[in-house]
Amino acid sequence: MVHDDQSAIPLQEQQKELLRSQQQNHQTEVPSVIEIMSTMPTEEVTWRYFQDQKRIVDFVLAFNSQTVTDTDQIAYAKRMLFQQNLEQEGLQIETESCQRIHFVKIHVPEQVLSQYCEFLKTKMPMKKLANQDKIIIRDFSIQSMLDWLFCWSLRNSNRIHQDIFKSSEYRLLYEYSRNKPYLFDDHDPNFFTPSVRIAVVNFILKRTSFSDKQKKKKYIGIQRLIEDKVYLDAYPLHDGCTDVKSRCQRTLLLQKWASIKKCVKPQPLDHIKEYFGVNIAMYFAWLDFYTHMLIPAAIAGLICFFYGLFTYGNNWMSREICRDDSTIMCPQCAENCDYWYLNSTCTISKFAHIFDNDMTIFFSVFMSIWATIYLETWKRYSSKIQHRWGITEYSSKLEPPRPQYLARLADVKKSSTFNVVTGTHEPSPPFWTKKFPSFVFSYSVIFLCMLLTIAAVFGIIVYRMSLMTSRNIYGVQGSPLEKLITFPAVTATINLAFSTLISWLYKHVAVYMTNIEYRRTQTEYNESLNLKIYLFEFVNYYSSIFYIALLKGKYPGYPGKYSQLLGLRQEKCSPGGCLMELCIQLAIIMIGKQAIAAVKENVIPFLVQKFKEFRSVLCIRVQDDEQLISYNQWAKDFNLINWNDRTLFKEYLKMVIQYGFITIFVVAFPLGPLFALLNNVLETRLDARKFLLYYKRAVPQRARDLGIWYNIMHVVGKLAVITSACIIAFSSNFIPRMMYKLTVSSTGTHEGFINHTLAYFNVADFEDNVAPLTSKYSNVTICRYSGYRNPPDHEQPYELTTMYWQILAVRVAFVVIYQNLVGFMQIVLAWAIPDVPEWLQDQIKHERYLTNEHIIEQEKLKMLNIASAASNSGKGNEIIVNHRSIPSREVMTAIVHHVPSPDCLSNGGYVERSIR
């Protein structure tokens, strides 16, 4: 690492010297904040510069000024030693100590920027090349894919404000190298953008030591200092104020992007990337694409819903149920429940038809195909973004190791691994004695937590079954509609509240388990943590829905011998099937989760930020000049909420959970894509406003794509095909209806289907303590129940009929055929949609050719100049090129044959395009 070999003064001597200087500083009169503000012009209230008003503040460290104690002495010594090491790295530091909170302002000079950009292999914009204008520039926005669906008159309303978010000149991107000055205009004061400056300072802060013990890797990094309370915080500054009259980048984004009124406008992705970095811009690009792709899914769901609504009155099943006033059904629980009439479920059967109709299977196939098209077209769309932002070839293996990873390696016996990307050998812990045991232990704990979550869901199921025996639920009180709708709604609400609570507790476990693993880079660490939390959330939110969709009511038994679990009778589906209850459960959990997340992620940050402002203003004694006044940008940003890697993770997790709802269980809730679409339209702008107003500015990070989230969505899409097939086959009445219509019905309709699905039971065959204790029905000898079983006078009473086994066989065959047919269609679509457009491949080749030709020409000129200088000086035997001795004959041969020198294309390869 760059900082491992820095010399430092011994900590004990530093403490003595720094304490003496601290005592002198306390005796020096510090100017009042009010005095400073009184001398400042009005327009300088939010200035972001050093005292010379020339050097801009790239990063800020904040610490609290307290009385001198033993603990403060150590913290002070660490601070000063850390800041001295930062200055040795080339950073420029200025401390402001006129308030209770002291601020250390950091500025990174251009020579340090160039050094670290080269070390980090950052791709920077090149000078404009000859013949560059011949390259055809195409629009990369998602709106360009939808323009042809609308008339020309609507296009102007769907464009970015070109007068505000102006498109910069077309530039190519190339990996920065100080040895190729002819490629970059690095003398331009705007060459190194604020995002690059912030990223470089953050890299140095994370890897600078604060101790003289160089071998102790644990004494490294700003994060450790913050954890030890040496510093309160470390953060980059937002771009200027949020005043309406201001024209800074942050204000423009607030007004023209982070506004609900602009929700139908395209997002200025290039400007978002320049302000927040690639990782956050990639999130908004994906969310924008996903939201647009929800439009056809929402339309298809509405068609399915309205089909069920328009055929509401012509449904044979509900008409048969509503007209039947003589069929008496068997009690739904033991002793406390009475008989009931079939027509009491008239209303619920009508509602069930809206979601369980003949269009359901077509909608299911459509959504499976939609999921494949969405993922494949995202890869195609993201390839244009990757090329535009210069991250096509980015790999996490290019990242330097995490300081925490190096700290753990300091205490273990290290082995060596070869990094195929950087071409270097790196220290690594032994696999079988360190990495593998930590991995097994970590995921064993995670698996245990998932089992505990399943056990909690099982407890809710037992609770549901226990309520079946309650008179308050299934007794004489309450209507059947209340029993079949209110009861699932209440239990779904309980499940939602429990899942929200347990997920908060689990996240702390997931973080701890990931910390014990040996994750080399921050990207590897984040993806491991993301996978753990998603696996838990998958079980937490989906397990109860899987139970209703695939298990409930499948093995209930019959009145004479009900199946029991822990002495409790298992639940049964209503005569209309379990799909209606699944719809209720899904709607409450999905919509409820989105509502809770919206409140938690928008209202809570607002309240927290306002509370921090209130505390800093009113809870400090003003007369002692200890009030924190926001008279500059770093003091104003201090009260904002801290940004960390988990902040963006929460946004991805919320959306991917939503994606699971609208793919895995969309058959039961066709309106799911519509609610997701409405939520995401608002979510995009609310997230933007939240990041700009309530959070400190994020440190820009490179990210090639969605990372592990794409793989998760890919697996969810495959699982959705199997789940949809099982829901249609086993939870809906689609296959029994088709079997009845084709093999039993004499009229070729569904008339008589309900009576066909109800078996007969002789009340004399009730077991002890099962028959109703009291009943308002008299002379009941036969009751009906759902199931394909023989009547009581059959030679094998209550045994499963042949029709049951035929339907079961068809159901299994349907699952196999559906899964293979849709899976084959997904494979064909994935093959037919290329990941990279052909025009983009041609453009990349053209740009690569132009860049390589330019490098060759410039290297030729460089060699000619060197050869000319050598010949003029009379020293023609050897020439120094890029710190290497090269014989003059080889240089001249390379020039004659039009071949670049050995270092000419050392950093070459893939050339990227950027709009600068």
UniProtKB/TrEMBL annotation:
Protein's organism: Anopheles darlingi (Mosquito)
Question: What is the membrane topology noted in the UniProt record heading this document?
Answer: Multi-pass membrane protein
Q: Name one GO molecular function term.
A: chloride channel activity
**Which residue ranges traverse the bilayer?**
289-310, 359-375, 440-463, 484-506, 656-678, 708-731, 808-833
- Keyword hit for Transmembrane: yes
> InterPro entries in the record, alphabetically?
Anoct_dimer, Anoctamin, Anoctamin_TM
User: Taking the first listed entry, what is the main subcellular location of this protein, grouped into a coarse class?
Assistant: membrane
Q: What PANTHER family does its record include?
A: ANOCTAMIN
Q: What range(s) does the Anoctamin dimerisation domain occupy?
A: 49-269
Q: Which domain of life is it from?
A: Eukaryota
> What is the annotated localization of this protein?
Cell membrane; Membrane
Q: Which family does it belong to?
A: Belongs to the anoctamin family.
User: The Anoctamin transmembrane domain covers which part of the protein?
Assistant: 272-846
Record's protein name:
Anoctamin
GO CC terms, sorted: plasma membrane
Q: Which UniProt keywords apply?
A: Cell membrane, Glycoprotein, Membrane, Transmembrane, Transmembrane helix
